[in-house]
Each structure stands twice: as C-alpha cells, then as structure tokens.
Amino acid sequence: MSSVLKVENLSFAYARVPVLENVSFEVQSGDYVGIIGPNGGGKTTLLKLVLGLEKGNGKISLFGTELSQFRQWHKVGYLAQKSPVAQTLFPISAQEVVLMGLTDRHGSGVGVRELKQVCEAMMQTNTREYAGTIFHDLSIGQQQRVLLARALVSRPQVLILDEPSTALDASSREMFFKLLSELNQKHGVTILLITHDTGEVGKHISKFMYIDKRLVFFGTKEEFCHSPEVAKQLGAFAQHTIDHLHNRHGHCPLGDSCEECSHAH
Amino acid sequence: MLINFLSYGFVQKGLLAGSLVAAACAVLGVFLVLKRLSLIGDGMSHICLTGVAVALLTSTNPVYMSVPVVMLSSLGIMKLTQKFRVNADAAIGIVSAAGLSVGLLITALAGGFNTDLLSFLFGSILTVSWAEAALCGLLLFVILILLRAFYRDLTSACFDEPFAKTRGVAVQAVHTVLVLITSVAIVLAFKVVGIFLISALLIIPPVAALLVSRTFKQVLWKSVAFSVLSVWLGVFVSFVYDIPSGAAIILMNLFFLACSFVWMKLGNSHDR
After folding, report:
1. Which of B36, B159, B218 lies nearest to residue A100, judging by beta carbons?
2. Which of A44, A249, B49, B136 qualifies as a cystine partner to B103, CB 3.0-4.6 A?
3. Residue of A51, A31, A14 lying closest to A162 (CA atoms)
4. Which residue has the higher pLDDT, A174 or A106?
5. CATH for A50
6. Is residue A43 part of a domain?
7. How far lies A43's CA from each of A35, A49, A163, in Å?
C-alpha cells in the first residue's frame, strides 16, 4: 500500500487561537477514514489545510509530493459541508457544475471525452435527470448529489468529504454511503470523511481519526471500539460513538468480526 | 434625423468608443456582480477623481494619469480584504473615501472646479478622441481573449472559490487580473458616462441579463447587448433632446433593467 496523505507536525491558529496542534498521521491507499471529534475540534480546518485552502505550520504531502509542489489535483475529489454560497441568480446547469470538477479547463468548449466523464459521474450519483436544470433550482439534497458528481468526475484516487450527508434524506443518505463504500471497495478510492453519523458510516469505515485540536486517536475501527484506553481517554463523546457503532437495537456494524458481540452471544 | 445624427464625426467616434467600453464593462460586470464585488466599480470611480485632479494640475492626459492611480488603489482594496480580513464592502468604502478626499484636496489646491473637471464628473462621450476609441477597442480585445482562454477558470472561481482552488485554478491571479482590467475599463469609461455613473455600466446590464438568462453564455451576450443598445439609444436621445449623454445612457440601462424585471415577473424566466 502506498501513502496517499502524510501529515507531519501540523499546527494552525486562527488569530492566535490554536485550532490544531502538532498533528501527524499517514493515510494509505484504500483506507476509508472516518474523522470524528467535537465541534470546533479542528476537523474541517484539517481538511482545508490538506487541500491547500489554508496555510499552517508543518508538512503535508499528497501522493508523495509536498503540497506546495502538488499539481495532480485530478487525483483529489472534494465535497464541502455546504453548497457554494454563490449568487442565487447564477444561471448554471447541474451538468455545467459537474464539468467544473475537471482539471483540464482550457477554452470554453467541451469535448466528447469530458461529456462522457460528466455523464458517468451523474449516473453514479443518480443526478442525470437534473443535468439541464439550473443548479439553484434544485433542492439542497439534490444539489449535494450534484456536487458529489463534481467531486467524482475527475475519477479521483482520494475523496475528501466534509459532513456531506447532513442535507440528505434517509434514502439519499443510504445511497450516498453505499456509493462511497463501492468506490472504496471496488475501485480502491481512498476516503477521508468528516462525520457525526457514526452509526451508519461505521459499517463501512476501516479507520477512525479522532481530532480535538490534537490527534487523540488514529487506528482501526476495532481498536477504537474495543480499546478500554480509548474509551477512558476520549470520555463521553467516544462512548457515544461506540454506542452508535454497537447499536443495541440493530446489528453490530463490525459484523462477524466483532469479538465483543460474539462473546456476548 | 437618424442619418443626420450618424453623419457627424464626433458622434461616430463617441458611439464607437461608447459601444466598445460599454461591452467591456458589461462582460467584466457579470463576474464582479457574481463575485459580489460590483461596488468595486463605485469605489474605483471615486478614485478616478484623484487621477483626474492630478492630471489637470500637471496638465497631463487624465486617462493616462488615472490608470496607475486606480490600479494601485484596486490592489489596495484587495490587500485590505486579504491581509487584514476587512470585508470587501468596507475596504471599498475606505479606499473610495480616501480617493475622493485626496481628489477634492488637490482640486482645491489647484484653484477649485473648472469645466474640464465637470466634464469628467458627468461624462462627455462626444469629446472622445480616436486614440481613446482605439484604447477602448484594445481593452475589449484583451478581455475577449482572456475570457476565451480562461472561461472555465473564471466561471469556476465565481461559482465556488474554495473548490476552484482544489482544481488548481489560480483563484488569486484570476481575482487580481479581473480587478486590474476593471480599473482600466473604469478609467476609459469615465469619458462616456462620467465618474459618478461608471459603476452603473458595471452593475445594471449584468443584473438585467442575469434576470432573463438560463445559461451563463446567455448572460454574457445579453449583458453586452443591453449595454451597447443603451449607449446608442442614450446618445441619440441626448442628441435629440439636448440632455446630458451620461445620464441618458444610464436611464436607458435602467429601462432595460425594468423590462427584465417585468419579463421575469411574467414568468418568462426561470422561477427564483
């Protein structure tokens, strides 16, 4: 497995108020990382730093290249928490929004290959029927699916997602996480996902990262769930997450591999 | 009457220069309005007063004197917003006030207002020279070349700036070039409509076009069409009724904006 993202001693402060302190970790190709932590813990800032949207102290490498030298942005797909706060009068179709996800942007024309990629991404996210609709005429949930298509259109090797499911209804959310799981398992796409929806997402995630200004925990789901040290160190929030993962009213998201459940049975 | 009107050399020059600069402002204005920077035109136009006042004091060409002054001020607005995190509207207000006060101070030191300064304040499209008309043509040419080459970068940066950055779009460079070209357009436009009304050329045609368009390319060409038609109709009306041409041009733009509102209300455009 090769390194997709390497973060070393990363720190960041807004107006001298520290948001992240000395964070170091490495994400390998094929990982599906769920990033959790309290509000204001620095999760979104971490992703912004990784994407070069903010500048912090420390070293970030994407696919072995230092961030300042990194140019292969087609390998990275990004979906933010909220729809772009663009002018509501912006007359741009859903298809044109998806097209913006491509990095080869010279001229104003659109090639057959580009259209094919756009079509594929819209099919994947079930948004083909809105292709010609003005983006701001879509519901928030539909907009979010179109934006997911935009993140997928360049066929990225890593997807960076910041609470993408907040605006989705139950069925769209299920479809959304199923698609992410498929991309991860069938196509080997590495995923970094900020989420509070640990119950649903926990079924698919392979690693957890817990951020609260500093990196409190980074390891496999099993380590997270079954380590008494983790629960002790993380307190109520971690216990809440573990409870979600071991939803007493449903099945364990770890399935047959969960030792705790097999002991209980 | 129309043939008679068009037969005058100064009218031909005025219409040519006016159409070219109106088209340039109409294209730039679309991006400024969508990036919520439309008031930058208002701020920069006030700064023009400093350039004009310095030019009148030193007996140099007001256009050539104003270009560097307005460009530097526009970069100042950008620095205020980016380095010191001052909101764009506040930064525009600060630089605009500075430009106006320095301009008025220089004017007072030079012995007060004269007819030349008043013509810059209120516009005098019919006194445009061939050289200034050629400059307007060059400006529009440069804008169209840049638009063709960086169309997707521009639309992407206007629609969703953070995402555009993750696609490798040099958002900062796009922003700087947009603001600097707008500076030149504003300086060239003050002869057409006057310092007080320049920002209207950057705001009204794009807003009217945004109300009645379903694609981004439609917005661009409709904005240009409204703006150029307003120049022609405005100059003609001012010629016939002997009224200030700058004011007549802006009133024509407002007429097209009113028509766009009516068109939208009648349900001919998409529901918003």
Report:
1. B159
2. B49
3. A51
4. A174
5. 3.40.50.300
6. yes
7. 7, 10, 10
The predicted model gives B237-241 an average pLDDT of 88
Same domain, A175 and A225: yes
Shortest Cα distance from B228 to chain A (angstroms)? 22
Residue with tokens 């690693």, as numbered in its chain? A207
pTM for the model stands at 0.82
Residues A94-112: tens digit of each pLDDT: 999 999 998 766 655 677 8
In a domain, A92, yes or no: yes
Residue owning tokens 């925990």: A217
B83 touches chain A (CB under 8 A): no
Q: Which residues of A touch B (CB under 8 A)?
A: 48, 51-53, 71, 73, 76, 78, 80, 84, 86-93, 96-97, 99-103, 105-108, 134, 136-137, 150
Whether A106 sits inside 8 A of B158 (CB atoms) is no
Q: What is the mean pLDDT of chain B?
A: 86
The amino acid at B73: S
Does residue A101 fall inside a structural domain? yes
Is residue A36 in a domain?
yes
Q: Which residues, numbered 205 to 244 in chain B, qualify as contacts with chain A under a Cβ-Cβ cut-off of 8 Å?
A: 207, 210-211, 213-219
The total of structural domains in chain A comes to 2
In chain B, which residue's Cα lies nearest the Cα of A137? B272
When scoring A54, A83, A89 by the number of chain B Cβ atoms within 10 A, the one with the most, hence best to mutate, is A89
Domain that holds residue A12: 3-63+157-264
Give the pLDDT band (50/70/90) at residue A249. very low
Nearest CA in chain A to B168: A73
| Residue B92 structure tokens | 């525009």
Going from N- to C-terminal start, the domains of chain B cover 13-195
* Alpha-carbon span A90 to A93, nearest angstrom: 9
- Predicted local confidence at residue B272, as pLDDT: 45
* Residues of chain A contacting B216 with CB distance shorter than 8 Å: 90-92, 96
Cα–Cα distance measured from residue A193 to residue A191, given in angstroms and rounded to the nearest whole number = 6
A102 within 8 A of A155, measured Cβ to Cβ: no
Q: Superfamily for B13-195?
A: ABC transporter involved in vitamin B12 uptake, BtuC (1.10.3470.10)
